[in-house]
Amino acid sequence: DISIHHGTSAGIMEKTGESNMSLKLTAWMEKISARRARKVMAVSENCKKELTSLYGIPESKIMVVNNFVDDQVFKPAENATEAGGENKKVINVCFSGALLEKKGLERLKSFSDYMEEYAGRDFLIELNIATNYSKNAEYFQGRQHTHIRTGLTSKEMPDFYRENHIMFFPTKYEGFSMAVLEALSSGLCLVGSHFAVTPEVQKYDFCHLINSETSNEELVNIIINLYQKFADKKLEIHNQIKNDFGKEQYVRKIEELI
What we know:
alpha/beta; 6-stranded parallel beta sheet; 9 helices; 9 strands
């Protein structure tokens, strides 16, 4: 009776240019499933729009139920009260995910290149990458201001997020990213594309939407401004995300759907 969608294969093909028989077949199955179901659950407003525009599903049939984050696991360090920790000049920016073009690889490379030449007077920006996808990792190795970590376990990811101040996520497609929720719940600010900074989180001052026209110089200024405003407000960010995307909210929405 209920068809659950974490994104659409048709959307992947449209936004990334990727196309193969597997995606096409999956898109056809998604469309049939959604059309036959009594109710349709979408994990984000973006996903809902794709279901209506690409699969012809009536809006009245779709309910958005966002993913939830484990706020007891992904939370700031207990001493995360002083901006920047011991060295207030260092801003730690992270990326978490596969190093693939659909995740924004080229933009990530461009930003890393820029950071090697960046000579800001007041701040040093470090890019920290966590990925379990070794392909393309060699591009970032041996750099002075980009640090790549592969093979982190799920138990190690909360500490990885806690070490950072801002998440940079230039992804070209997501349904509703768990990595984004985990980072936000850990007290990080967010800078990213429309599929990272979704309509659900654009309302927060600690989330900043960028596009392909945003230069690396502009990106650095955005990062510095977010750091200055929110580096000492990690607990406040965590509490906001807990209230809006915690388990209790998720259960309530599921009960309404059923």
